[in-house]
Amino acid sequence: FDALPAVSFSIIAHIDHGKSTLADRLLEMTGCIPAGVGNRQVLDSLKVERERGITVKSQAVSMRWQGTLLNLIDTPGHVDFAYEVSRSLSACQVALLVVDAAQGVQSQTLSVLRIARARNLRIIPVLNKIDLPAAQPDVVLAQLEDVGLDVGSGGREEAISVSAKTGQGVEEVLARLVRGARTHKEARRQDMRALVFDSWYDPYKGVVALASVYEGTLRKGDRIASAASGKTYEVLGIGVNSPEPVSTGVLRAGQVGWLMMNMKDMSEAAIGDTLHHAHTKVEPLEGFKPSVPMVYAAVYPLQAQDFPKLEDAITRLALNDRSVTVARESSAALGQGCRLGFLGTLHLDVFRQRLEDEYGQSILVTAPTVPFRVTAQDGTERTIASPAEFPAELRAGHAELAEPVVRGTLMCPEEYVGSMMELCAEHRGEDLSIEFDEGKSGKRQVRMVYRLPLAEVVTDFFGKLKSRSSGFAAFEYEDDGYTASDLVKLSFLISGTPVDALAVVLHRSKAVATGRAMARKLRDVVPRQQFEVAIQAVIGNKVIARESLKAFRKDVTAGLYGGDYTRKAKQLGKQKEGKKRLRAVSFGRVQIPQEAFLSVLNSR
Ligand code: GDP
Ligand code: MG
């Protein structure tokens, strides 16, 4: 690997357009993995990624082809992970933009293209799946031209037609990458600068960083410094992944690889940091925007005594995914837990699954909430990441409440335009523009731009969008700041005891319907008691919905005849055992079986 000209590239695409399959073919053809094993999705190494078919963490692999080192940096393919995409692309010079030749340009194609352009990457469009009978390469080329790419033959961004499945055309992709590699003669004479774009903790090796060397040469034994902290380290080990880690002792300009330094703590390997030789002074490389959580949810252990283990697992997982924020919180019903911040709901889902799969945690997750904002009269602002932080007494004029909004672009075939407008209206959307796009491709597509509260988007918006458009609508959104909003905190009481885990902050217009529905669900899971149980939904001290459960005396021996004492005793014993097995959550004198309570918690 030493001294080869090198190029770093990423594959970017709308989900399912064939990014992972193309990566597999490239790895096979360059001998990194044995050929003919089928769809291996080598880069998607985490179980959750394989199951869901999405790539979450970025990974880097180095391949050799015709005397050139090709560094592939994989990127996630979902809008929730735009932060990861942007950070992976920071380490690249080239982006292969994969477009399904049957499906054409989709919303994610455009968003990843935008990120790649913002990073000044050279774009090589790849029309994939040309083996499919439905493939329409000419139509898709026209679409790419419509979005401003010069894809014609001899064009600056000439497209390559491939089938990642059969391997047809993939060699041309390698050839184009090789032509794009620089020899870095000049870069080698400059002071070394390397961007840290991933890091993790390895139980045997300690802290490992993944870095892209922009200029100069980095060797084992070098004394290096972090531009962010000024701390100095010694390079103890250095190499590339091919795809297994290979120690090379050196990384040169254009190369991407791992390095081990004598870092004590994960926090020292800050992602986005620039490393340089300790005796030099360099300008730090341009990092990327740090992530801002857009969705919060609390995670509790199913059994309170498991909290330390859960917290430990969360901490370790969060070190592996720096876009997650962690804070402790507690609940009267659920005990000690953590409130976590995520980039979106899929991100939350993936984190939850990783906690279960990789760390064996049994957890429950509260309904997602967005960061609301309170501005006090004196102008001070704070974020409400949890319903518990909602100001208790909020009199008009004393503070202003605001909620985050997004600017969403919805694309769908013309026939679904009516139901999509209805959906956005139901979710408090404000329409900004609508365009009927003929394009050169001839198929009439509608492109609508809406401003929507983020809180509406993180609920079941995507599910409805897909089901009401038979899967044809695509939706993509970006942060659009905050807007003043009439928000209330909706709480639930069982016999006067608050059920804090169910409290939500929501728009006033949704409070009554939500309050009624949740009160009804709660009534269904509360076991009858020897006294009447009132279930109330309240805003402040105003009851907006109420359900009541009549008193009932449960007699387990009622069904038994005669006076067989031992049989009665057995029956009573069974009931006791049942209680032990079925853990319960208590609200004052009322106990709800945990299972049932969780079903209500998860039903939102
Ligand atoms: P990703 O989400 O972009 O990583 O997409 P994948 O690589 O997981 O591919 C999505 C689906 O398309 C999988 O079922 C692949 O087998 C299939 N696929 C990928 N490339 C091709 C291709 O060139 N031809 C055909 N027919 N199917 C392909
Ligand atoms: Mg994939």
UniProtKB/TrEMBL annotation:
<dbReference type="InterPro" id="IPR013842">
    <property type="entry name" value="LepA_CTD"/>
</dbReference>
<keyword id="KW-0472">Membrane</keyword>
<dbReference type="InterPro" id="IPR009000">
    <property type="entry name" value="Transl_B-barrel_sf"/>
</dbReference>
<keyword id="KW-0342">GTP-binding</keyword>
<feature type="domain" description="Tr-type G">
    <location>
        <begin position="4"/>
        <end position="185"/>
    </location>
</feature>
<dbReference type="GO" id="GO:0003924">
    <property type="term" value="F:GTPase activity"/>
</dbReference>
<comment type="similarity">
    <text>Belongs to the GTP-binding elongation factor family. LepA subfamily.</text>
</comment>
<dbReference type="Pfam" id="PF06421">
    <property type="entry name" value="LepA_C"/>
</dbReference>
<keyword id="KW-0496">Mitochondrion</keyword>
<comment type="function">
    <text>Promotes mitochondrial protein synthesis. May act as a fidelity factor of the translation reaction, by catalyzing a one-codon backward translocation of tRNAs on improperly translocated ribosomes. Binds to mitochondrial ribosomes in a GTP-dependent manner.</text>
</comment>
<dbReference type="GO" id="GO:0006412">
    <property type="term" value="P:translation"/>
</dbReference>
<protein>
    <submittedName>
        <fullName>Putative GUF1-GTP-binding protein</fullName>
    </submittedName>
</protein>
<comment type="similarity">
    <text>Belongs to the TRAFAC class translation factor GTPase superfamily. Classic translation factor GTPase family. LepA subfamily.</text>
</comment>
<dbReference type="GO" id="GO:0005525">
    <property type="term" value="F:GTP binding"/>
</dbReference>
<dbReference type="Pfam" id="PF00679">
    <property type="entry name" value="EFG_C"/>
</dbReference>
<dbReference type="GO" id="GO:0045727">
    <property type="term" value="P:positive regulation of translation"/>
</dbReference>
<feature type="binding site">
    <location>
        <begin position="13"/>
        <end position="20"/>
    </location>
    <ligand>
        <name>GTP</name>
    </ligand>
</feature>
<dbReference type="GO" id="GO:0005759">
    <property type="term" value="C:mitochondrial matrix"/>
</dbReference>
<keyword id="KW-0378">Hydrolase</keyword>
<dbReference type="Pfam" id="PF00009">
    <property type="entry name" value="GTP_EFTU"/>
</dbReference>
<keyword id="KW-0999">Mitochondrion inner membrane</keyword>
<dbReference type="InterPro" id="IPR005225">
    <property type="entry name" value="Small_GTP-bd"/>
</dbReference>
<dbReference type="InterPro" id="IPR000640">
    <property type="entry name" value="EFG_V-like"/>
</dbReference>
<dbReference type="InterPro" id="IPR004161">
    <property type="entry name" value="EFTu-like_2"/>
</dbReference>
<dbReference type="InterPro" id="IPR038363">
    <property type="entry name" value="LepA_C_sf"/>
</dbReference>
<keyword id="KW-0648">Protein biosynthesis</keyword>
<dbReference type="InterPro" id="IPR027417">
    <property type="entry name" value="P-loop_NTPase"/>
</dbReference>
<dbReference type="InterPro" id="IPR035647">
    <property type="entry name" value="EFG_III/V"/>
</dbReference>
<dbReference type="GO" id="GO:0097177">
    <property type="term" value="F:mitochondrial ribosome binding"/>
</dbReference>
<dbReference type="InterPro" id="IPR000795">
    <property type="entry name" value="T_Tr_GTP-bd_dom"/>
</dbReference>
<dbReference type="InterPro" id="IPR006297">
    <property type="entry name" value="EF-4"/>
</dbReference>
<feature type="binding site">
    <location>
        <begin position="74"/>
        <end position="78"/>
    </location>
    <ligand>
        <name>GTP</name>
    </ligand>
</feature>
<dbReference type="InterPro" id="IPR035654">
    <property type="entry name" value="LepA_IV"/>
</dbReference>
<feature type="binding site">
    <location>
        <begin position="128"/>
        <end position="131"/>
    </location>
    <ligand>
        <name>GTP</name>
    </ligand>
</feature>
<keyword id="KW-0547">Nucleotide-binding</keyword>
<dbReference type="GO" id="GO:0005743">
    <property type="term" value="C:mitochondrial inner membrane"/>
</dbReference>
<dbReference type="InterPro" id="IPR031157">
    <property type="entry name" value="G_TR_CS"/>
</dbReference>
<dbReference type="Pfam" id="PF03144">
    <property type="entry name" value="GTP_EFTU_D2"/>
</dbReference>
